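Pipeline run #58 for the internal structure catalog. This entry was flagged by the ingest filter as a single-chain record with no existing model, so it goes straight to prediction. Upstream metadata was stripped on purpose; only the residue string is passed forward. Reviewer on rotation: M.T. Logging verbosity set to normal.
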Amino acid sequence: MLARTPFRAATFLNSTSSSTTNTILPLLIDTTQCRTLHHRIAQPSIPKPTPFVPDATTFLTLIGRKLSTHAAKIPSWEALFTLTSAQLKDLGIEPPRARRYLLRWREKFRNGEFGIGGDLSKVVDGKAEVRCVEVPWDARIGKGVRIGARRTRDVESAIVTKNAPAATLTRSPGMKKVIVNVEADVPVAETLEGQALKSATTVVGLKQMGANTIYGSHVEPIKGSDGSRAVIRVKEGLWEHVRGHKIDGGERRKAEVRAKRRSAERKAGKA
């Protein structure tokens, strides 16, 4: 069996003509620089600020872990979503887990994954009011309701079908209760009119408990509103993912630490 001779680019190029070298040399260079291809990938888009998150400082305040102390190091909204991990390190954002946490939340926001209040549109000075209101029950969401031998997409007809909810102690017949974002001190009918009122859905992250009480993380009820009106405001750590803490040495050493403790207790009992 013949031994396989290793390929050497320099020897091969010396043995070929200049015309062949001019053709093959670019191919050899391209194949040895494949790792640079990721620089040609288009940069992710920069999401638009929302009423609840209008700037980089508010974003850093919401995600918590004391990242708001670095707000002065990030000059703009565009910089927040374009700076690389190495650039964040040069700006002095430490430790590395803080940068990883920031980058993870950055991608979540880019993909429309917000914390509580992120989808609110009526926000003033970092504060949004939510109310528990009754709206017409709509059984046709996306597919229509059957009335006798025909189907309809008329909301008023859908309400009077036999599938509509009956009256209860806390709800009128043919109605449902949802939690909506409204302008402060403005009647609901003036902020949600017509079809907007009929198709209203509950704010993400909130629930209605009992008759009218609004329940959710970091919700502040308004005094004198029997729980049907509340406020969600921007504050430190509102969206924070709290870090866990080690118990008995953490996951890897837990069994070892507890075994040593039991052994020490047995020895102490025999003494």
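catalog note: The longest helix spans residues 250-270.
catalog note: The radius of gyration is 31 Å.
status: ready for reviewer M.T.
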